[in-house]
Amino acid sequence: MSDETPISHSHRKLIIAIDGPAGAGKSTVASRLARKLGYANLESGAMYRALALKAIEGDASFDDEAALVQLAHDSRIQLEPTLGGNRTLLDGVDVSERIRERDVTEAASRVSVHPRVRAWMVARQREMGTGGGVVMEGRDIGTKVFPDADLKIFLDADPVVREQRRMEQQKLKGEVLPNLAADLRERDRRDRTRVASPLVAASDAVIIDSTRLSEDQVLEQVEALAREKLGG
Ligand code: DC
């Protein structure tokens, strides 16, 4: 079966949540699964990144929750999933590349700790996914955004392997970032220890450890679970 072949003709449109730490392989499996199902792949992290970029551009403090919430209300953050990949628009401008840069990555980790920022994001994410037919990835999709999701995956991997994967990705982009491992560990720590919606597997999530699995193997497992849910 080709990568593009839809796996089911069922009319039921699932909400699929894929959560886990950075470098576990969420983005790849989410986008490939979405393509197979003909679903939208919504990267919730891109929304936190877009708000972080707005804060950088507006010189807002990453610690000022009230200012960040106001900024969120004043922003138009759009996720545009297409078969060719996902675009993120901030106030109508394509910021898909910019939001992957190091300063935004660091800022996103900091703005996402605030409960009221998260509440704003969760409300937008629910609006986008409610109709189903979505593979939404993030940190709190199965626990907070869609606690009733049809399928919840928690994708994890050994921290050393996740760091290596990120380094490979940076190399492919032609970037060499000093402190990548330390930065990743610090963002992990923030994700897991924040008071509001810390990164944790939902009690009914299927936990997949991708440490020794290829991308194809992870996709195979997740696809099989989705097939089961679709009754196929
Ligand atoms: O997945 P990502 O690296 O693009 O996410 C960017 C940041 O946003 C990351 O620091 C974690 C945070 N995030 C979050 O707190 N909740 C989500 N649902 C998605 C991302």
Shape: globular
What is the assembly state of the chains in this entry?
Answer: single chain
Listed once per kind, the bound small molecules are: 2'-deoxycytidine-5'-monophosphate
Helix-strand pattern, N to C?
Answer: EHEHHEEEHHEHEHHEH
Please name the CATH architecture.
3-Layer(aba) Sandwich
CATH class categorisation: Alpha Beta
The number of helical segments is 9
Give helix % range: 40-55%
Q: What percentage of amino acids are in beta strands?
A: 15-25%
Can you characterise this structure?
This protein is an alpha/beta fold and 232 residues long. The protein has helices at 26-37, 44-57, 65-73, 102-111, 115-129, 141-145, 159-172, 180-193, 215-230; strands at 15-19, 40-43, 77-82, 85-90, 93-94, 134-138, 151-156, 206-209. The chain has a single domain (15-224), classed as 3-Layer(aba) Sandwich (Rossmann fold). It contains nine helices and eight strands. The strands form two sheets. It has a five-stranded parallel sheet. Strand 4 and strand 5 form a beta hairpin. Helix 1 (26-37) crosses helix 9, helix 3 runs parallel beside helix 5 and helix 7 (159-172) crosses helix 8. The structure holds 2'-deoxycytidine-5'-monophosphate. 2'-deoxycytidine-5'-monophosphate binds next to helix 2, helix 4 and helix 8.
Topology:
Layout: E1 15-19, H1 26-37, E2 40-43, H2 44-57, H3 65-73, E3 77-82, E4 85-90, E5 93-94, H4 102-111, H5 115-129, E6 134-138, H6 141-145, E7 151-156, H7 159-172, H8 180-193, E8 206-209, H9 215-230
Parallel strand pairs: 1-6, 1-7, 2-6, 7-8
Antiparallel strand pairs: 3-4, 4-5
Helix pairs in contact: 1-9, 2-4, 3-5, 7-8
Bound molecules: 2'-deoxycytidine-5'-monophosphate (DC).
Residues 22, 44-45, 48-49, 108-109, 112, 138-141, 187, 191 line the site of 2'-deoxycytidine-5'-monophosphate (DC).
